[in-house]
């Protein structure tokens, strides 16, 4: 957690007075996780991802977006993307209640925008990606898929999941 200090200085009639020094801690109230329902893949297989955003504070967060890189990686001078978003697969829940699907741009990157997390609540976003021709196929290979949650005045949160 980040800490801060604060001290006031009062100047009047040529005099200077400093207040006591106060130290505080900035506490993040928004946290997130990303999980693959199945932790392995093969060519053409579907991978279901679940992102949960938890708000432990007493103020709602609105207008959040998720930007998912769909496992993009560098290969020489190219950027390859081993996962394709499966159109129409997004589900969005707030406190366990299914909501209307937010705005989805298939990308890559995949962008899901218009997410709201109520005070002391949870938003859950579920979507499916399909392993494509760029998915590494070696026995030791894996796909590391990262997403960034931002907007609504928050410090961006990065969540990552690796499947083999």
Q: Topology of this protein?
A:
Blueprint: E1 2-6, E2 9-12, E3 15-18, E4 22-26, E5 30-36, E6 46-55, E7 61-68, E8 73-75, E9 78-80, E10 83-85, E11 91-94, E12 97-98, E13 103-105, E14 110-117, E15 122-131, E16 143-150, E17 157-163
Antiparallel strand pairs: 1-4, 2-3, 5-6, 6-15, 7-14, 7-16, 8-9, 10-15, 11-12, 11-15, 13-14, 16-17
How would you sum up this structure, described in words?
With 164 residues, this protein is an all-beta fold. The protein has no helices and 17 strands. The chain has strands spanning 2-6, 9-12, 15-18, 22-26, 30-36, 46-55, 61-68, 73-75, 78-80, 83-85, 91-94, 97-98, 103-105, 110-117, 122-131, 143-150, 157-163. The strands form five sheets. Strands 5, 6, 10, 11, 12 and 15 form a six-stranded antiparallel β-sheet that branches. It has a five-stranded antiparallel β-sheet with strand order 13-14-7-16-17, with no helix packed on it. The chain has a two-stranded antiparallel ribbon with strand order 1-4. β16 and β17 (157-163) form a beta hairpin. The radius of gyration is 21 Å and the shape is elongated. The model has no long low-confidence stretch (mean pLDDT 90).
Q: Report the average pLDDT across residues.
A: 90
Report the structural category: mainly beta
What is the helix content?
A: under 10%
Q: What's the overall geometry?
A: elongated
Task: Please outline the major beta sheet.
Answer: 6 strands, antiparallel
Q: What gap, in angstroms, lies between the N and C termini?
A: 32 Å
